[in-house]
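Two proteins were folded this term; both appear here.
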Amino acid sequence: MKHTVIAITSWDDADKHTAKLFSLLERYKIQATFFVPIVAFRKRWINKEQLMSLSEVQEIGSHTITHVDLTQLDDSHLSREITHSKLVLEEIIGKRVTSFCYPCGRYDANVVKHVKHAGYSCARTRVKYSLENPRDLFKIKTTLQASKQYLLSKQTIRALRLLRLGSKLLLDDWVELAKHLFDRALARGGVYHLWGHAWEVEKKNEWKKLEELLTYIANRPNVKYVTLGQYASTLEA
């Protein structure tokens, strides 16, 4: 029996290497959500024209104003970081911004409340090794970061065991782990969510590794390639 897989990629920070990443994703017809922090944008990591061009093909999501730990802010500063960043991006691209990403994966109940109040439809965390549909659209988990993995916790090892993957994979090439997780999704269905940073791929000189993975997951039957916002809209409907 063939299972349907939802494939999502999302990329944080919109740094100056975003154009290179965008070109690679376009080559393999992979949908993506780009989370843009306003201060980084104003520092010309990508310019206004590039952001508008990117939004014509891919989704733009908010990553706050200053990429700050939201759990350390009072309500007034939370509102500025979460709500104002949405308004600034919407004014630039001329479209609604419905997806949000917690900087450094840091959030609590109050932060989630502000994200909902600002009018977003969903929010992404940095929790990895999940292939499940989210129970909460404002605590969306991911499958893998496009970077070297580390043995960080018992929860990480337990998550991989539940997916019938050995923890030794964490010490090996992240692309092989990513392929194993994709194969697991094909076998059982679910949501495959790859995320990362263009600057990190550049820093570690891993563009060939990323392309190897995109080649592996692209153009598969029974796989729907969507943005995070598109996926959230489907679940809401």
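Next, the second protein.
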Amino acid sequence: MSLVYTTSTTEEDLLGIIALQKNNLAINLQYDEIITQGFVTVVHSLDSLHKMNAIEQHIICKDDQKVVAYLLAMTVQSQYDIPVLLPMFEMFSNILYKGKPVSSYNYIVVGQVCVDKNYRGQGILDKCYEYYKTCLSKKYHFAITEIASRNQRSIKAHQRIGFTQIHKFTAPGNEEWSIVVLEW
């Protein structure tokens, strides 16, 4: 196994993200997999990934040519490309971080993270976040994301990496979400 941490630069990289995403969408998993392995929620189109990637490239881990992990990079400029995430961006005007609204900072949203189930438990997510920080910390004050509270695998992984919760809310449909920040 020869893992490479890099940015998404080709359409094949973006298609690899979509394939990995599809395999880990909550709607495509059994209940026990959701509980033990975690899940992703938002479906991205190739077009939306292209638009986001044109602003800030996504971080990926590849084993040979296969994308085995990704961290999406999403800026405020991308907020209208994925309508389901628009309420999150709107909420950033009302959530305070260090005494100021989140929206007053220059931040990067971790649009979604995923590690292939055959590659979990090897520190790949940690290394992806190290590369994310290397690529983006000079441009943005911090990274921020929201995680479904029932996705305990992701919550615990993000805590281990250094994310701290700054807000919790319940969305329509009664899904509870945690908004977390990673200080560089």
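The domain at 3-183 is CATH 3.40.630.30 (Aminopeptidase). The chain has a mean pLDDT of 95. These notes refer to the second protein only.
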